[in-house]
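Sequence of Bifunctional protein FolD (Oceanospirillum sediminis).
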Amino acid sequence: MARLIDGKQLSAQVLVEVATEVQQLKAEHGITPALAVVLVGDDPASQVYVRNKVLRAEEAGIRSIEHRLEADTDQQTLNAVVDQLNKDPEVHGILVQLPLPKQLDEAQIIAAINPAKDVDGFHPLSVGALASGQPSLVPCTPLGCMIMLQQIHNDLSGKHAVVIGRSNIVGKPMAALLLQANCTVTTVHSHTQNIEALCRQADIVVAAVGRPELVKADWIKTGATVIDVGINAVEVDGRRKLVGDVDFASVEPVAEAITPVPGGVGPMTIACLMKNTLTAARAQLASVASKDIESNPEPTAAVG
Ligand SMILES: NC(=O)C1=CN([C@@H]2O[C@H](COP(=O)(O)OP(=O)(O)OC[C@H]3O[C@@H](n4cnc5c(N)ncnc54)[C@H](OP(=O)(O)O)[C@@H]3O)[C@@H](O)[C@H]2O)C=CC1
Ligand SMILES: Nc1nc(=O)c2c([nH]1)NC[C@@H]1CN(c3ccc(C(=O)N[C@@H](CCC(=O)O)C(=O)O)cc3)C=[N+]21
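Predicted 3D structure, token representation.
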């Protein structure tokens, strides 16, 4: 029997820590961290996700602001909303829910977000900082996966990690974080040959593919840790349910530890979004303070 990495429980712990620090920030600096979520269109999956974010923000003491725009919104209108949030000193985090309707240019919008407020970690500056090992806002899903992995492994050094998927949201930043943690990282994707054989060499498998129950027991080395990022809605006996990218029933007996779906990576993603909003609010406070010092230098700072 594998150890179950309980994302519901672990995310509740992360949220308690965030809530405590949010209270401190309020008490010491009179600042309430605020997260703005921009949702274009009425995709039902996004609605669920946004609703969960609002609930978790409330628990953490974070103010949440929602902007819901029509599905036929044009680029200029969306840019104006982002711009207004960029300029608002009371907004610390901005998340534009993806995917956007096809008339909108995703890359342009992401690049238009103030990098200091980029709680998704998708802005090119955040991506570059992560890749070059500088401190930055790290994408929420891979950050959540790393917290889960740390429950199982004190030290990830030297582990062979195979990441299935190379999206900008999950696969690529996941591989960067594992590399940073001294893993030997293999990223596989739809052009990779012999995925099963590569996965069988892995101490850690992270599946972020979007294919229901793709990963089978014979892909997994005995004793490996399996992180299932996939969230796929499927119909079983006429009823809708969520399954991951891993065939949980067959893989669970082989793995040492495994995340469930639902109740695994999903709740951790949302908890990490709150963590990033707190981090962003703190950094913005520090940056305002340093600008105050620049514009009002202490007389003693002059060398005489
Ligand atoms: N739990 C959470 O918080 C989150 C969950 N998700 C879920 O994770 C999954 C992945 O999401 P996302 O990264 O955005 O998806 P994308 O569709 O952007 O990327 C999927 C990746 O998987 C690769 N791929 C597709 N089919 C295969 C295959 N048969 N064998 C090997 N590789 C394959 C693709 O390869 P190629 O690049 O060559 O096309 C691509 O790199 C989805 O189920 C999504 O719902 C996503 C975000 C957050
Ligand atoms: N800008 C942006 N940032 C994202 O991080 C982002 C995004 N857009 N678009 C969509 C994907 C998907 N994603 C999920 C997060 C949590 C759950 C989640 O909480 N899942 C619950 C179940 C929810 C349910 O019951 O439907 C669970 O797995 O237990 C799901 C999906 C974040 N994404």
